[in-house]
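Run log, item B.
One chain of 281 residues. Sequence copied directly from the ordering sheet:
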Amino acid sequence: MKQFTLYIIFLSLIAGACTERIDLTLDETYTRLVVDGGISNDTTSCQISLTKTANYFYNEPTPRVVNAMVNLTDGNIHYPLHETEPGKSGLYETDSTFSGRIGETYTLSIELDQPIDNRTTYTSTCRMMKVARLDSIQVTFQPDWGPEGFWEIKLFAQEPGDEVNYYMFHYFRNDTLMTDSIWKVAISDDKYFNGNYINGITAVYVNNENPWETLHPGDKVTLQMSGITREYYDFIYQVQLSGFNIPFFTGPPANVQGNISNGGIGFFTAFSNSWGSTRVK
C-alpha cells in the first residue's frame, strides 16, 4: 500500500511539471523576399507570388511585394509578367498563351520597387524537364487500411529511362485541385521503374476518413504528373520533412535550400505535365 501511495505521488509531481508555463522569446530576424511559383508546358497563365518574411507572432496576412518588375526569358525571348491587381496582389502572371518548352532553361528576374534588406534585384533559373506520358489512371479502394480505408490513384505510363527522372503528382476531384499546398503533393523518383512500363503504381493516397478529400462513386478524378528537377524534388522533400519533427521543439534538420539569389527564399520551378482522368466506380 505504501508503494502504491508513493507511485501516485510520483505521478502527481510529473503531471504538475507538465503544466508549468513556459515563456518563449523568439528573436526577430531580417526581412527577406519569398518567391513561390513556376511555369509549365501547358498553354496557360503561370503565376509567381512575391511576399516578405514576417515574425512568428505577426498577426496579419503575409506582406505582399507589389509594383515589382518581373521578367522571364529562355535566353532568346523575354516574357514580361504583369501584376494581377497592380499595386495590391503581389501575384505576377504570364500571358495566357505562354507555354514552356521541354529542355529549355528559364531565368526569372525580379526588380523590386522598394528594397528588401538593401537589395532590389533577384534572379533564379530552372530547366524544364521531360515527363512520362500517361496512358491511363485507375482509382481503387482499400477498406482495410486505417479506420475508414484509403483510396489509391494508380498510373499507367511508359517511363523514358534515358536519365534519372523526378516526378510530382497533384490530383483533382471534379476539377477542383485537392493537393493545394506543398504539404499535400506527392513526389517520387524513377529508381524502381526507370525505363520500364509503369503498370499501376500508386501515385496518390486519399484518406477516406477525411470528408473534405475523400472520393465518391461518380466523382471525376484527374491526375497531373509533372517532370521536375532534382533540386525542386529536394526542396519539396525538405519542406515536407520540416513539418514532422520529433520532439516538438526541434527545428528542421537544415535550412530548406531554394534557388533564389541574393538571400531570397523559396523556389522558382519549371515543369512539364502529363494528364489522366477517370470516374470513380
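Observations after the first pass:
- Residues 4-11, 14-19, 245-253 have pLDDT under 50 and may be disordered.
- The helical segments are 2-18, 230-242.
Flagged for discussion on Thursday.
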